[in-house]
Predict the structure of UPF0303 protein CP969_15310.
Amino acid sequence: MTTDPTRKPEPTPSVEELEAQERRLVFRRFSYEEAWELGSLLVEMAWERQAPIAIDIHRAGQQLFHAALPGSTPDNDAWIARKRRVVERYGHASYLVGARYRAKGTTFEESSRLDPDTYAAHGGSFPITVEGVGVIGAVTVSGLPQLQDHLMVVEALEQFLAGR
């Protein structure tokens, strides 16, 4: 990924900011068409940024979209599965779940009592929430540092939902 050496790193969002993202980024509906369009938007963003990521969208246990861009590896798919399982279990973004543990002075790995080979509370998986229904799936990115994975998904969701 190309980077600007003069660019300052993104500030780490607070738990409250992460919770506000989830309240704001809600769909009216989420079909195969929305999955394709959101996934395609993430692919476009990744190509423009030369981001070596894999992208995954799941709904109700079914993979609706997957793409692997140059530089991504099979490990990215393993990370996607682990981060997505956190969203499926907790109903919240994987980054938010990890941030809540860190805010308590511990880590997800130390305190969740879940197998770290199965679950990863690292940034990059965000719940797909539908108004009046709740969390029905997850959109996940893997390949960048965890905050950048999270922010890429949030940016795509913001753009996608603003255009609807």
User: Anything to note?
Assistant: The chain has a mean pLDDT of 95.
